[in-house]
Amino acid sequence: MSAEQQEVLLIDSNEYLKSGIHIGTKFKTKYMENFIYKTRPDGLSVLNLKKIDERIGLAANMLSQYNPEEIIIISRRENGWKALKLLNKLTGIRVITGRYPPGIMTNTNLDTFTEPKIIFVCDPWPDKNAVDDAAITGIPVIALCDTNNQSNRLDLVVPCNNKGKKSVGLVFYLITREYLKKKGILASNEELKEKPEDFMEE
User: What is the tens place of the pLDDT at every residue in 106-126?
Assistant: First the structure.
């Protein structure tokens, strides 16, 4: 990457590479082909860093149009729990870690009924019940998608390795930082006190 490209990324490209954010799976769906830069000799797909970075920025932009209580971020897989708990603490955005309680967005009789204006899922496959509910209620869905994910019913796909603890942690570190900047809570040149590592599961 040239120095010129380097400047426009949300974080140093080495940080991205170190987290393995760009390493996909051996399977690729038709939709995700657009984000794939190449296939390695061992068959793993490699995602395009610039597109990953661009989409993280777009996701933060989209979220910044909403107040924290209007957003829910969901992760069935454990690799996102630590990141989401810290994101919740720093931004006030609601998170659901572990099993998504069915019907909380569609069944008005539930005590836990909630009406978010947008949701964000860590993986549209394990988190598909939440994606289904969002489709019923007509609210936008942002999703982290690996090379093997389908993209139907998603409004914004953020291509990345959504199975790796480091890569998921790094995505939510950036989402937290950019959301706080766009909301004016952090100055545009300010950094979070927390480091990307603080968002990563051990």
Answer: 999 999 999 999 999 999 999
Pairing of strands 36-39, 45-47: antiparallel
137 within 8 A of 164, measured Cβ to Cβ? no
**Identity of the amino acid at 114:** T
Which residue type does 87 have?
L
| Cα–Cα distances in angstroms (integers) from residue 177 to residues 113, 115, 134, 189, 194, in the given order | 29, 25, 26, 11, 10
**Domain positions in the chain:** 3-184
What is the β-pairing status of strands 118-121 and 141-145? parallel
Q: Does domain 3-184 have CATH number 3.30.470.20?
A: no
Whole-prediction pTM value? 0.94
Contact 171, 21 (CB under 8 A): yes
What 3-state class would DSSP assign to 29?
coil
Q: Quote the CA–CA distance of 59 and 102 in Å, as a whole number.
A: 25
Contacting residues for 151 by C-beta, under 8 A, at least 6 apart = 29, 31, 32, 124, 143, 145, 157
C-alpha span between 172 and 190 (Å, rounded): 17
